[in-house]
Structure formats: C-alpha cells, structure tokens
Amino acid sequence: MNNQFKILWIEDNDDWYKAASRKVIEFIESHSLSTNCVERKKTGKNLNLDSLKSNNYDLILMDYKLPKGSPNGDKIIENIRKNLILTDILFYSSQYDEMIESFREMVPEIDGVYLSKRDRSLFLEKVDRLISKIVQRSEDIVNLRGMVLEATSDFEEQAEKLLTKLYDSAKERKKQILDSILDKKILQHNQKEIKQKVADFEDGKLNVSIANNDFLGMYNRLTIFAEYAKTTNNKEAKNILNYYMSKLGYFRNKLGHVKNGDVVKVAGKEYTINQDFHRMMRKNINELEEGFQNKINFLLNDGI
C-alpha cells in the first residue's frame, strides 16, 4: 500500500460509478492516501489474473451481475482465489438474495469476500469500513519504515537526476556558481571525509562527483539546490532543504529502532508512533511528491 490505495472497480453503469466513486475517493483521502490508483473496468470478461497479481490491489469492488457474456461474481472470485490472489473483494447487486444464495453454495467458504445491496448509501458505508480496516491492518512499524525508505530512495534518485540536469544545462557562469557552492558549502567542511571517499577527486568540479552517492548525499544535493536558488532570488526553491527535511528527512533518521506506541522527538517536537503518525507521514510524502518536483522545476526554468 505505502502511500497509495489501489482499487480495481468492475462496474458497467457509468452514472452509478461516477456518483459512487466521488465518495470512495473522499474515503481514501481521509487516510492521507493517494487517490490516483482507482482502476475501472466495465466487464470481468478476460480478467487478467497476472495483472491482478502484479498490481497488488488493496481492494476489489465488483458488480455481481455484469453484462451478458461476462461471468458472474461467484465464478470470478473462485478463479481469483484458485490463483492465490487474496485481495479483499466487495460484491454488490440489486439482486442481493440471489447473490447471497450463490455464495452460500460455495464450499469451502471464501475469506475476504464481502457482500452489499446495490443501495448507494449501504454500499458506501461498507466501502468506508473496509478501507479503514485495510489501512489499519497495514499500519505497523515495519510497513511504516518500508514506506519511508522507499520514498527516501525515490527522492534521492530525483535529486540526483535534477541536479545533473541543472548542471548540464547551465551556462559557464552558472556552472562556476555551482562549483563555488560545492567548494564552500561542502568540500571545505568535509575535506577529510571526502578525500577518503573519492580518491580520484582532483579539480573540485561538480560534474566530476555529481552522480557519486558516497560523495554527495541527499542533504548535500539539496544544500546545493538551496544555495543556488539564493543566487537567482527563487523563493520557491531556496527552502527546498528545510522543506524536504521537515516532511521526510528528519523522520527517516528516527524510525530505525522505534515500535508502535513509542514517543520520538523530531526537530524539537514529540510524536507518538500511532495511527495519526502513520497518516501524517503518508500526507507528508504525498505533499512532497508534488511540491518537491515543482520547487526544482522553478529553479530549472529560471536559474539556467
């Protein structure tokens, strides 16, 4: 799940889907999860089981009675479970009693399958409870560490590529500014450490070391961005270091040995590792995914 909640929704009625999906997206957003992962299909015919496995859906919503030519829900779920796909599934139908009877006949009983009438209010109430249950099930410290480490890795890769792009695109005078920042803000403060890491570093040129993760970590790369932004009077980018650290960087360094219920102190503020903390971290990562790129793009657009 990480910071995305992925739904596969099989529904052929456009109006019903449009009205119900708005509320489902609100439910997902209330947990500070990304809502761009609701995939809709109009039929269950030729449902690709390999795709179901690889997409790791958190929830499947399915109209039990699909259009003619498409198998009913009981046949679909039997096929899904035979292939060891254990995603929670909510079936719904205006022919609720018929649906109930079909599932009663299934032996053995299938776990993780829920049923609802095709009544929007009842359906949405069940979806809301299911999403909350699935999210809560995922909120342990191991998953939290995994989510934070994955996000950190993604942002580090972005920063490396964007700094390379900035340097490669800059005119000579701007390159000199970047080299000067590297020298004054990083080299002079870390000479001993850098010489140990980069034996072949000689001329202090940023392009020699920009892709070397041992030499330039995330903090150093963002320092270069922030200092360079000051020379362009770019208000959007000059706080990029503090922005990243306050949303993710400081927290990453504190999650190594904590467990649920512990209190950690981050940047002078105390946080309890609980459901609210999980939700806050998902929100921070979602905001970073949009804001981080935007801040750097401002710099790339007017700083070259």
Strand content: 5-15%
Whole-number tally of structural domains:
2
Q: What's the end-to-end separation, in Å?
A: 38 Å
Kindly provide the radius of gyration, computed on alpha-carbon positions and rounded to a whole number of angstroms.
25 Å
- Major sheet: 5 strands, parallel
The amount of helix comes to 55-70%
Tell me the series of helices and strands, N- to C-terminal: EHEHEHEHEHHHHHHHEEH
Helix count, per DSSP? 12
How many strand units?
A: 7
Q: What general form does the structure show?
A: elongated
Q: In which order are the strands of the major sheet placed?
A: 2-1-3-4-5
Mean pLDDT: 81
Secondary structure class reads alpha/beta
Given as residue ranges, the uncertain stretches (5+ residues, pLDDT < 50) are none
Short recap of the structure:
By secondary structure, the protein is an alpha/beta fold. It contains 12 helices and 7 strands. The protein folds into 2 domains: 7-138, Response regulator (Rossmann fold); 141-302, no CATH class.
Description of the molecule:
The chain is 57% helix and 11% strand. The model has no long low-confidence stretch (mean pLDDT 81). The two termini are 38 Å apart. It is elongated, with a radius of gyration of 25 Å. The chain is built from 12 helices and 7 strands. Strands 2-1-3-4-5 form a 5-stranded parallel sheet. A two-stranded antiparallel sheet has the order 6-7. It has 2 domains: 7-138, Response regulator (Rossmann fold), CATH 3.40.50.2300; 141-302, no CATH class. The protein is α/β, with parallel strands linked by helices.
